Amino acid sequence: MALFPKKIDFFEIFDRAIDNLAKATDHLVAMFKEPSDFDKKAKVMYEFEQEGDMLTHDIMKELNKTFLTPIDREDIHALASRIDDVLDLIWAAVDRMGVYRLDRPTPEAISIAEDLQMTSVILRKVIGELRSKNYSHVQEHCIEINRLENRIDRLYRDALGKLVNSPNDPVYIIKWTDIYQLLEDASDRCEDIANILESIVVKHA
Question: Maximum CA pair distance of the chain?
């Protein structure tokens, strides 16, 4: 047995987790824009969610047996949890569409999905900047994530307004209200990630 355990590269695991999230948001946009074979595409999304669970488990497992970490342990735990939350909420929205037999996403749902996709692209960049200790760039990216979260909030509000002020069946309104809420919650968790990253910068800058 080695006297000193192998150093764990947490950023490498975070890179994989964010890459998995980015692929999931790419798939979300693609399946919303072309919803044919919805059930088959939903199964692919479930695989992304399961991969996210495994990566989160890997981070927590390594955290429990690592003494020295590149950033505070509570920040690693919080980042891993929030990234996993985003994936869980995206999968929940897709799964709920299957349960509700809604295979034609609304234009508003597509717009929210596109902004989640853009957010994941920025998250990919920000983890690299954090690894390189380019803290000013981390803050710039976090501002952009917050801007996108605000835009999704407006899209969510407008989507609800359009939903309830149109001659829709009440059950249809309830279904889409639920799905919109899940997608908006995913955006909120992205903002949580940005807030955690900003707090890391304050500690280390």
Answer: 70
